[in-house]
Amino acid sequence: MKIRVGIVGGAGYTGGELTRILLNHPECDIHFVLSKSNAGKFLHEVHSDLNGETNLKFSEPSVNTQEKNFVGVDVIFLCVGHGEARKFMENNELPEEVKVIDLSQDFRIAERSFIHQRKFIYGLPELNKAAIATASNIANPGCFATALQLGLLPLANAGVLGEIYSTGITGSTGAGQGFSQTSHFSWRSNNIQAYKSLKHQHLHEVYQSLRQLQPTIENSDFEEGILNFVPWRGDFTRGIFITSQLKCDLSMDELQKLFHDFYLNNPFTYVSQNEISLKQVLNTNKCVIQLEKVGHKLVIHSAIDNLLKGASGQAVQNMNLMFGIDETTGLKLKASYF
């Protein structure tokens, strides 16, 4: 029997990507897609690339939604804005057997991961795979957080992380589908900009994960923490490229083994022996990592697609683990390389 799926907030970038994946997932059947602003429309009227792929229509959240939709599904994906996922969970009493995967930041931090009788597990498979496999509720990681962590976790596991200096550039889809000055084409074109320097909201979850492996990282206060991160808005639509620098006395051979062993049983994270680029990961659920060493200085590059490994693809990877199927199912996607 196929996994019966509900999507709440299906009109945005993450909801659209999730729908595209699940329509072609061999183990899934989409039961409903909710949208306040597009109720009654065909999905392909909003996501025009789905024309000919499905005749599903958006449903409207209402007082009867629970009776009509929530009963009879196995898992619900929350593709709503930050703060809206918690409101949804507060206002809707879901059947206990329905699993939840939230793509917002509302339940990622441990002290805020509870609501009603539900506890959310942080859904980074490379870190928490065993816990995800037995979980009923998942807090999907943030896009910048995913790319940052995957470049640093092997070093945290070895207990060798010190002061880190990171920069990362993201495409316009990272800002969501709603209009803003900095997502407008004429502003983005031929332009880059630093923003939220040293205080990006994803740093909270990054510190939480790093401390899970290296407990000596005590202070996650942005002013005093070891991770100095400057994000940039880039002149492209999708993808994230991170570069992190730190001092490290391990040799390149030791580092290559450290990263290889850490990601040995993780099918979507690769350590490249060659220079990496953003196009290698676009339209995939992969993270590619490259290491460089100059003297005692280590440089780590990591790249992901922000809408897939940074959002909807990772959410499906988590669903696969939760339901005991191969985590790569439905996610063997070809990179948009040319």
Task: Determine the CATH superfamily of the largest domain.
Answer: Dihydrodipicolinate Reductase, domain 2
Strand content: 15-25%
Number of strands: 15
The biggest sheet, with number of strands, parallel, antiparallel or mixed sense and barrel status, is:
7 strands, mixed
Global outline: globular
- Contiguous low-pLDDT stretches (5 residues minimum) are none
The CATH class of the largest domain is identified as Alpha Beta
Our count of domains comes out at 2
Amount of helix? 25-40%
Summed up, the helix count is 10
Terminal residue distance? 38 Å
Strand line-up across the major sheet: 10-11-9-12-15-14-13
User: What's the overall average pLDDT, rounded?
Assistant: 92
CATH architecture designation of the largest domain: 2-Layer Sandwich
- Helix/strand structural class: alpha/beta
- H/E order of the elements? EHEHHEHEEEEHEHEHEHEEHEEEH
Rg from Cα:
20 Å
**CATH topology title of the largest domain:** Dihydrodipicolinate Reductase, domain 2
